[in-house]
Give the backbone structure.
Amino acid sequence: MNHSRVNFSNILPATTSDIKVFHQWLDGRAFNLEEIRAFFDWAAKNRSPSTAARYKASLKVQMQHARGTEITLRDRLRLDEFFKTLKLPKPESRITESKILSPEDRKAIRNASGEKTNVLIQALYESGARVSEIINLKMSNCETIKGITYCQVLGKGKKLRTVYLKSQTFNKIRKLYKSQGYLFETAKGTPLSRYTAHTLIRRAGRKLGRRLHPHMLRHSRATDLLNGGETLPSVSAYLGHSSPEITARFYLHGLPNPRKVMRGID
């Protein structure tokens, strides 16, 4: 099998950001099976299980796509067998305390971060959006009314939904990122990459000895909303889940909020 570099001009849109993460990690080294194994060893330690699994699926699809009509049945079977040998941690569906941040944790991490990372962390928490949704948010899909900015994000299944940011947060992002087309915009006028967002947040967590990734902010927001009395259907809709049952599977484990249980006890 020819393991030459992937031709980015033919990348499938759904896998582009994942393949870029792989090539940024590769940093010019040879594209071979040993390096792919090493990449997934790294991903297992530095990314969530669901993200590592997505990298695996994306890379496999792209390797098949890069060969085009030249790929033989034998090659495809070899590729399938190779990817079966890449063992990754299984995602944990339940959201435990280790996967959320307290208000004190968030404040400490933001205070230890640079301004651009600070507002990225705040936007991910306030909106409860997935990192892909927030970095691809266009300015034309944002409207501020009475101190709240309503943002239309494109979620899974290409479904639009509205999330909220404080107008103060929104304006701070615009100033720091010089937003024109996208809210989180690079100097080239392109949206901030998923890789950059993950890197900024991971570095922020390291400063306080925490393994931090963007989805923890989404988990934290959902947990805080439910503990604050919001209904399961409303939180489910806000997160963009396909049903309240999915939200319940992640966030409700049959245990009441401990602070509410202990309230009023001498």
User: Anything to note?
Assistant: Residues 1-14, 253-258 have pLDDT under 50 and may be disordered. The two ends are 71 Å apart (CA to CA).
